[in-house]
C-alpha cells in the first residue's frame, strides 16, 4: 500500500516537471521586452545647461537608475546603480550593450538611423564598441550611450511628447520611456542664442593730430602655380629690388617642391589605407558568411529530429524549405 502511494506521488511529480519543461520550451522569457515608463511623476529639472530626467527601478537590494541628460550638443543615456545623482564613477559596465532603437512619438530619430547606417559593423542595432562616423553616436559599454545632436533632432525633442529607448544591456530588451512634459520650456532656454553684447561706451572726441606724410613703398609678390596656391602662400618683396625678387621666387620654388612631395606621399598613404580597408572588409564579410553558414547547419541539424517525425516547430520556420516533403509546421499551433 505504501509502495503504491509513493509510486503515485512520483508520477504526479514527474507530470509537473514535464509540464514545466514543456512551458519553458514553448516560451522564452528572456526575449520578452521589459518595459520601464518614466511618466510625468518623474519631473524634468534643469541644471548647468542640461535637461535631466532620471528613472529608476528596484533590483533586489539595489536600485538601477536610467539618467537621461540632454544639453545643447548631445543626448546621453547613463546606466547607474545606487546612484541617484548620475555620477560617472557609479555607472554600470557592460560586455555587450546593444542600442536597438531611439524614437520620439513612435518615430525613429533620423540621427540614430544615420548612426546605424554609418557604424563600422553591419547590424540592425548599434553594437557596443562599434565606431560611428564623426562620433555621431557612442556606445562604449562604460555605462553611457551618447548621441551628438543636430538641429533636426533638437526640433523633434522640442515638439515631442514621449521619447523611448530600446536597449539590451544583458541580451534581454529593455524599453525605457520618458514623457517630455515640461521639457520644451526649459530646453528652449538652454539652446537659445546668447543676448547681444551691450554697445561700447561712446568714444570721447579728441582733437585730430596732423598725420605725417606716408612714405610709399610698392610691394610685389612671388606666387606659386595656380594649382598650388591654396597651400603655398605668396611671398612679398620690394618691387624693383632684384635680389629680394630672386630670393622670393627661390622660396616659392622650394615650397612648391615640398608641397608636391607631401601630396605624393599623402596619396600613397591614402591608397595603402584604402587597400587595407578593402582587405579587412572582405575578410570580415567572409567570416560573417562562414558564421551564418555554420548557424544554418546547426539549426537544420536540430530541425531534422522533428522533420523526421513529420512536424516542424517555430524555430525551424526559416529553414522549412529544406524539410522533406510532407513536413507540417506547428508554429501557429
Give the SSE layout.
Blueprint: H1 2-26, E1 34-38, E2 45-47, E3 50-59, E4 62-70, E5 74-81, E6 98-104, E7 107-108, H2 110-117, E8 137-139, E9 144-148, H3 151-159, E10 162-168, E11 174-179, H4 183-191, E12 219-222, E13 235-238, H5 242-307, E14 311-312, E15 328-329
Parallel strand pairs: 1-11, 14-15
Antiparallel strand pairs: 2-3, 3-4, 4-5, 5-9, 6-7, 6-10, 8-9, 10-11, 12-13
Description:
The chain contains five helices and 15 strands. The chain is flat and about 105 Å long. Residues 1-30 have low confidence and may be disordered. A hairpin with a 4-residue loop joins strand 8 and strand 9 (144-148). The protein has 333 residues and is of the alpha+beta class.
Question: TL;DR of this structure?
Answer:
By secondary structure, this protein is α+β, with helices and mostly antiparallel strands. It contains 5 helices and 15 strands.
**Assembly state here?**
single chain
Number of strands: 15
Q: Can you count the helices?
A: 5
* Uncertain runs: 1-30
The secondary structure category is alpha+beta
- DSSP strand (E) fraction? 15-25%
Largest sheet, in brief, is: 6 strands, antiparallel
User: What does the average pLDDT come to?
Assistant: 85
- The H/E string reads HEEEEEEEHEEHEEHEEHEE
Range of helix content: 25-40%
Gap from first CA to last CA: 42 Å
Strand order of the largest sheet: 2-3-4-5-9-8
Radius of gyration: 34 Å
Shape: flat
Features:
six-stranded antiparallel sheet; 15 strands; single chain; five-stranded mixed sheet; disordered N terminus
Amino acid at each position: 500500500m505504501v509502495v503504491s502511494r509513493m509510486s503515485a506521488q512520483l508520477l504526479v511529480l514527474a507530470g509537473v516537471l514535464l509540464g514545466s519543461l514543456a512551458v519553458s520550451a514553448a516560451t522564452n522569457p528572456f526575449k520578452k521586452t521589459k518595459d520601464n515608463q518614466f511618466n510625468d511623476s518623474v519631473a524634468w529639472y534643469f541644471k548647468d545647461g542640461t535637461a535631466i530626467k532620471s528613472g529608476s527601478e528596484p533590483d533586489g537590494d539595489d536600485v538601477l537608475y536610467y539618467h537621461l541628460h540632454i544639453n545643447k550638443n548631445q543626448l546621453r543615456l547613463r546606466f547607474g546603480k545606487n546612484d541617484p545623482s548620475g555620477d560617472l564613477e557609479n555607472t554600470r559596465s557592460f560586455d555587450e550593450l546593444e542600442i536597438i532603437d531611439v524614437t520620439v512619438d513612435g518615430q525613429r530619430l533620423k540621427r540614430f538611423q544615420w548612426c546605424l547606417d554609418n557604424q563600422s559593423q553591419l547590424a540592425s542595432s548599434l553594437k557596443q564598441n562599434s565606431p560611428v562616423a564623426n562620433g555621431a553616436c557612442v556606445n562604449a559599454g562604460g555605462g553611457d550611450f551618447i548621441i551628438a545632436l543636430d538641429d533636426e533632432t533638437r526640433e523633434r525633442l522640442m515638439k515631442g511628447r514621449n521619447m523611448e529607448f530600446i536597449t539590451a544591456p544583458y541580451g534581454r530588451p529593455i524599453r525605457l520611456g520618458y514623457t517630455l512634459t515640461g521639457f520644451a520650456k526649459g530646453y528652449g532656454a538652454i539652446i537659445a542664442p546668447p543676448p547681444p553684447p551691450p554697445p561700447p561706451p561712446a568714444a570721447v572726441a579728441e582733437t585730430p593730430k596732423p598725420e605725417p606724410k606716408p612714405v610709399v613703398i610698392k610691394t610685389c609678390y612671388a606666387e606659386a602655380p595656380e594649382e598650388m596656391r591654396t597651400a603655398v602662400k605668396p611671398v612679398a618683396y620690394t618691387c624693383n629690388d632684384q635680389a629680394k625678387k630672386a630670393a622670393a621666387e627661390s622660396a616659392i620654388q622650394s615650397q612648391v617642391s615640398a608641397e608636391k612631395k607631401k601630396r605624393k606621399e599623402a596619396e600613397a598613404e591614402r591608397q595603402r589605407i584604402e587597400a587595407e580597408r578593402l582587405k579587412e572588409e572582405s575578410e570580415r564579410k567572409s567570416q560573417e558568411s562562414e558564421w551564418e553558414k555554420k548557424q544554418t547547419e546547426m539549426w537544420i541539424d536540430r530541425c531534422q529530429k522533428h522533420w523526421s517525425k513529420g512536424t516542424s516547430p517555430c524555430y525551424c520556420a526559416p529553414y522549412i524549405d529544406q524539410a522533406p516533403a510532407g513536413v507540417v509546421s506547428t508554429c501557429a499551433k
